[in-house]
Amino acid sequence: MLRSPRLIPILLFALLAAVPLAGLFIRDGYLxxxxxxxxxxxxxxISLDLILGFGALVSFGHAAFIGIGAYAMGIxxxxxxxxxxxxxxxxxxxxxxxxxxxxxxSLRTKGxxxxxxxxxxxxxxxxxxxxxxxxxxxxxxxxxxxxLVFGSRLLENDRVFYYAVLASLIGVYLLCRMIVGSRFGRVxxxxxxxxxxxxxxxxxxxxxxxxxxxxxGMIGGFAGFLLANQTEFVSPAYMSWQRSGELIVMVIMGxxxxxxxxxxGAAAFLLLEEWxxxxxxxxxxxxxxxxxxxxLFMRGGILGFLARISGAKNG
Amino acid sequence: xxxxxxxxxxxxxNFGGLRVTDDVSLEVRPGEIHAVIGPNGxxxxxxxxxxxxxxxxxxxxxxxxxxDVTRLAPEKRAQSGLARSFQITSILPAFTALENVALAVQAxxxxxxxxxxxxxxxxxxxxxxxxxxxxxxxxERAEVPAGVLSHGEKRALECAIALAMEPKVMLLDEPMAGxxxxxxxxxxxxxxxxxxxxxxxxxxxxxxAVFRVADRVSVLxxxxxxATGAPDEIRADRAVREAYLGEEQATGDARHA
Lengths: 315, 257
Ligand SMILES: Nc1ncnc2c1ncn2[C@@H]1O[C@H](COP(=O)(O)OP(=O)(O)O)[C@@H](O)[C@H]1O
Ligand SMILES: [Mg+2]
Prior knowledge:
A: mainly alpha; two-stranded antiparallel ribbon; 13 helices; B: alpha/beta; four-stranded antiparallel beta sheet; 9 helices; 39% helix; binds adenosine-5'-diphosphate; binds magnesium ion
């Protein structure tokens, strides 16, 4: 049953669609806000999986895009530009530009150097944000309200916002699924498997990898835009290197190179974090080693684990 | 005489103090298989890398037809009609055999900056790829991930990939190495069938095969070509026998004993 490639994502999105229904029985805005956050980070994790899982580009600075998208929204709003479209366009444009410049440089390097240089660019973005005195510096920036949809405050309703984020998640998922299966996606995956072979048949991997990096960066920026809307707050902490590391862990934990694995990973990560922090204040001491064990011993992540147990049942 | 499709002029390459390519000049003419033989470490693979652009020569030039491609990147040379195989099998292991070949078809048919539309559903790519798989006898294995094909099948797949590029000239780096007897025979007859359309530079260790398929043979020793000629001339050449064939035959006999 779990072998059907479509089933898991459909199930996943159906579950997410059902979360607000729980609110009918338990009055719990907390659940809604937790899962909104799960979905927003899932969007960012999917975009990372696009380059990490399908391009073998281990970016250790992906959280920078979340931050850039969030600041684009926050800064515009602080100048009175509160429209959805303006914020969105700004978030996408700023993250695309940052991706284009840093990607063009980073992709000239390989392997561990690529990891280091993306980390460096991520830190650069972090310190730049922290030095923005006019926009709160270290303390961050409070946003007055969520983006206006043609002047209306539609998104202030948490349930409406939840479904808007869910629709965004599904849209991003389908977009990435399409890209992966396209001609472009084939070249990207070919360059991951064997760049030398790709050159020998006439493909220079670089422009394809750069395009993928920009697409992933823009989706990351989109996630940041949503995050700023949800929390009505923007802070340099969004783009710390720990955040970038967490995104990598989410992708690996869920099952790298599958796109919906990133959604599972984001959910597992945030729920585990929530649950552990609920019963001890020293939860990080447990959480860290736990993640290491999961990543080390669950080959293929949670998806791989599911495939193995369903395979064992069938065979 | 017809113009050569590929010519090397005074190619040189050193690795530190080691001279691996020493003033190599040779031509591949239309319709011919030009074989390069030589003992291990003679510099055959290094030569192929320089022709295909994966290594830059220290001096000398590479011409595709009349075009000087010495400074061109590998992918540009591939686009200009130069196909190559690798001594160490080089395929895309997670893709099926068909996808491996379809990607080579894709490379020369329209833009690959297409983000929508399933590549696996493009009949044009698939049918062209399938035809090449049939040509090398792999059509039944089309849907198998390339990584799990047998060694000989992978060698055949590399040939199908090269064919799918519709090249003007093909460089083959020991295509027979490690292939079984039947697979070797199939490759030989394939080369014979193809050479009228696609001339080849063949690096090969299997002497029987070389003398059967090659129209001309060059002998490379310590990076230097010591003789070029028809197979019979090379077999009879004293310098060649001393430098290479004698030693080969001796070890060959020892193996049979
Ligand atoms: N990248 C390299 N750096 C240094 N030496 C190399 C390199 N590649 C090959 N060589 C050396 O160059 C010589 C020729 O190698 P190669 O071209 O692989 O020979 P062949 O293919 O004829 O067996 C060998 O002595 C080998 O050790
Ligand atoms: Mg060699």
